[in-house]
Specification:
Length: about 240
């Protein structure tokens, strides 16, 4: 599978205005759903995911298996407000490596939403899911110290890397943690439109080093992303040479 690393430079003011006008900005100011909608508007079925929005200065990065010329053709059909918000006039991409070595060590960064599905089918914070049944025995504190959360989220991340034998974590640290509300659409209201919900959950950035275990599976992991909400700004695995800043 070939991958392109795509970069866009959304215009912060145009992005905020578009998201506000379309009521796609979460109460916490998360642009995930707005960017998802914009990418779908600009690229249709070729909308890239996973993606990571790094802010006004660094822009948006995404992996895609689509042909760059086809992406540009689709982008040329986007309405002016969508083009301005995403910065489509400056769309850029380059081929991303796919020839990894077994045992190769790479630096990584990933913004993830460590959630699991509970018995009722609803998503739940992986930490809260893990402490069910352990609070009475005192194994894990109910207040959830950052050390406890880090340990549980690290286990969750390791399981994501290990899927299909793709990779393993050599070392990782939790770079940032917060609880955020993200916008999602679910079901249909009385007017036939999908209802908007604000879902609260963990918003975590991990940094560290990994080792490739199975190169083809690792390529699939890159293209698929990590965890859930990959179409909304979570789960993109950013790589760098081992030992770089």
């Amino acid at each position: 599978m070939s991958l392109q690393l795509l970069r866009l430079q959304p215009a912060p003011t145009a992005l905020a205005l578009w998201a506000t006008r379309c009521r796609l900005l979460s109460p916490d100011g998360d642009f995930g759903y707005a960017l998802h909608a914009l990418l779908s508007e600009a690229f249709g079925d070729l909308a890239p995911k996973p993606f990571h929005y790094l802010g006004g200065r660094q822009g948006l990065l995404a992996y895609t298996a689509a042909d760059l010329e086809m992406l540009r053709l689709n982008a040329s059909l986007a309405p002016p407000d969508v083009a301005r918000a995403l910065g489509l006039d400056h769309l850029d991409a380059r081929p991303f490596p796919t020839a990894w070595r077994t045992g190769q060590r790479l630096g990584f960064e990933a913004r993830v939403r460590p959630v699991v599905r509970g018995k009722d089918g609803r998503e739940r914070d992986a930490y809260l899911h893990a402490v069910e049944g352990t609070v009475d025995t005192g194994q894990v504190g109910v207040d959830g110290s950052i050390a406890e959360r880090t340990a549980i989220y690290s286990d969750w991340l390791a399981a994501q890397f290990a899927f299909d034998g793709a990779a393993q974590i050599a070392e990782a640290h939790l770079d940032s943690f917060r609880l955020t509300r993200v916008l999602r659409k679910a079901g249909s209201g009385e007017n036939g439109k999908r209802k908007t919900t604000n879902n609260a959950g963990p918003d975590v950035v991990f940094k560290g080093h990994l080792q490739v275990r199975d190169p083809p599976a690792f390529n699939r992991l890159l293209g698929r992303g990590i965890g859930r909400h990959r179409a909304f700004g979570f789960g993109m695995l950013l790589l760098r040479p081992a030992g770089s800043c």
